[in-house]
Amino acid sequence: MNFELSEEQQMMRESFARFLDQESSTVRVRAAMPSGFDKQMWNGLAELGAFSVRVPEEAGGLGLGLLDAALLMEEAGRTLASGPVAETLVAARLLALLGGQAELLERVTTGAAVVSLAFHDIAQQPRQWVAGGAVAEAVIARDGKNILLLSVPESARGGEDNLASTPVAELALKEFPRTVLSSNGEGHIIFSQALEEWKLLIGAALAGLGRESLRLAAAYASERKQFGQFIGQFQAISHPLADLVCEVDGGKFLVWKAIRHIADGAPEAGAAVSIAAWWNSEAASRAVAQALHTFGGYGLTTEYDIFLFNLRAKAWPLVFGDPQRLLQEAGRRLYGGERAVLVLPDAGDCPVDFDLGDDARSITKEINAFFEKNVTPEMREKFHYSWEGYNPEIHQKLAEADLLFPGLPKDMGGRGLKTYAKIAAMDAFEHQGYNTPAANVAQMVSLIIYRFGTDELKREVLTKLMKGEAIASLGYSEPGSGSDVFAAQCKATQEPDGSWRIDGTKMFTSGANLASYVLMLCRTNTEVAKHAGLTMFIVPLKAQGVTVQPVHTFQDERTNITFYDGVRIPDSWRLGPVDAGVKTMAASLELEHGGGFSKVQRAMLKAAEQMCREISFEGRPLIEDRTAQSRLARSTANLWVSDMLTFRAQWTIAEKKQNLGYGPMAKMFSSEKFLTDSRDLLDLTAPYSLSKRAGPAGFLNQCYRHAQGTTIYGGTSEVHRSMIAERGLGMPRTRA
């Protein structure tokens, strides 16, 4: 897996960024209004080779890949470049591939001429809105089977006042002088490829624009005071921005994913292009609206630059038409047989890669073979995402097969898999329908004991956990503290003989009814700050004074409230120094960074697809309905973004890169989309989804109930939003 650009791409991006920061500053953008075209900036871009990026080398261009062009467009979007950059990039490549226009091509690549595109067949739409039509001397268009170069008379380039002061114009294309560039099927394919390329480039531009608008909003919220506080300290301000930075970053990665799919010839490549264009149009629109709202009344004035982002975020994609049609197109490409394989552009060099590698494929194969050999249909019937699915026999056999703890290092008896293979292992378990919270918690507890436990604990407890002979539960939350684990009041008092007496209550002690031990965070000092007076212990759940009381949820998941009344444990069962429980607990968190819910999102989507094929709607399978296809495509988009955010978090950890809250982004985004999609897919497949019968209907039903908890446990979405705002957007702390 690789999220890092090549050295050449980084240099190119930095070069364009420096140029555009100066030549497309908001001062310059304003100066270019109302025409929306900055000739000096345009010429400078040409001198840097911008319009030659996608022109093949044999035609005198740079011959670079789609990702290179997307990086350029991200910077153009970030700086609101005044001119039809995406359209001219694509038109220059078209002129080169179709041939016969060497002189015009040279004028385009040197900035002397602007050539744009007509997106729709002029045989059907003779009058069209054209991006850059107010400054273009020519437009490339499709007329049935012919690909034409239409000369735009100077008298027709007037343009008109429009939403974002861009050089857009409605042109009577049928009336203009024409040159036939191609009259065969190959030219038609090349033109269709150009349209797909434009979708990716405008998506990249919108991702850059959206990210910059959020940066401006976060910076303003970090300096603007209201009621004696920076407004960025108010969660009502910071949390929506945190949501949107996930969507905007996800949009950029959808462009990258589409390019990677094209390079690999993946069957989903065409749909990925449509989804990337649709998603970025939506995400940028929401981002700029929230960014402007952050500025309050000042955002409505022309004194602040945020209005420029707001208007261009809408204007750029709308020249193509309603963005919702792109989602419909994605639905047809995914579920209606419209694969678009032949109309995708050449991707060129693409160093970003989301393949998990050979080790990942090997562990997946091994896990699948284990389940085929050791798991019976009767066992499968009792699988469940929660602790209710715990099977002691499978658990112990996984330990014997060295598959129980893939993330633990070999020197403590784990499998020692690298990061990407660990992701694949978890995917393989999910594919088999076997979720392993018991193993995941045992893994955490084992790691803490290994690092902080006494020899006695390692001998008495760690050995049993590693062999799969016992499991452990977590005793963090309490009835009055919830996610604020540092507010724990369950008390541990040291007795004269050095042992400890534990008194108090723990809430949501899931698995305590099945486990042999609980990892306990207890209050040992009330005279210091709350986070500094905690100590970690291992407590046997069969000890005298422990009571486990069930708490049932509507998710078919049992949790527990546990009571500790004078429970005695030796000091040797303490983990780490007294009053240093927070540091001890932190050792377990490294196993949770970057996690999300894309695995169950994927399983849920597959179940919905299956039901849509089985349900009859107006005399045909529901999967053939355009609305159903669009809704499934939207869930696909949410799944892909969840995947990409999780991959980035995992890659950042594995490669030791700067981490700006990427783990919380993956967890928060995926849990929220799991929740919204579970509702929508339940609606889509109603009334069959009401049933708890075995099969896809029962699984969708369960997903709806399961999803409610994912935004709560493991840290609520609100906690993660605060972390994202602080780490990812540099906003002030929103928690006391």
UniProtKB/TrEMBL annotation:
InterPro entries to which the protein is assigned, alphabetical: Acyl-CoA_Oxase/DH_mid-dom, Acyl-CoA_Oxase/DH_mid-dom_sf, AcylCo_DH-like_C, AcylCo_DH/oxidase_C, AcylCoA_DH/ox_N, AcylCoA_DH/ox_N_sf, AcylCoA_DH/oxidase_NM_dom_sf
Organism from which the protein derives: Stenotrophobium rhamnosiphilum
Cofactor: FAD
Residue ranges occupied by any Acyl-CoA oxidase/dehydrogenase middle domain in the UniProt entry: 474-552
Superkingdom, natural source: Bacteria
UniProt keyword Flavoprotein, yes or no: yes
Protein name in UniProt: Acyl-CoA dehydrogenase
Assigned keywords, A-Z: FAD, Flavoprotein
Acyl-CoA dehydrogenase/oxidase N-terminal domain residues: 6-99, 358-469
PANTHER family per the UniProt record, alphabetical: ACYL-COA DEHYDROGENASE, ISOVALERYL-COA DEHYDROGENASE, MITOCHONDRIAL-RELATED
Molecular function in Gene Ontology: acyl-CoA dehydrogenase activity; flavin adenine dinucleotide binding
Sequence ranges assigned to domain Acyl-CoA dehydrogenase/oxidase C-terminal in this UniProt record: 186-333, 602-728
UniProt similarity note: Belongs to the acyl-CoA dehydrogenase family.
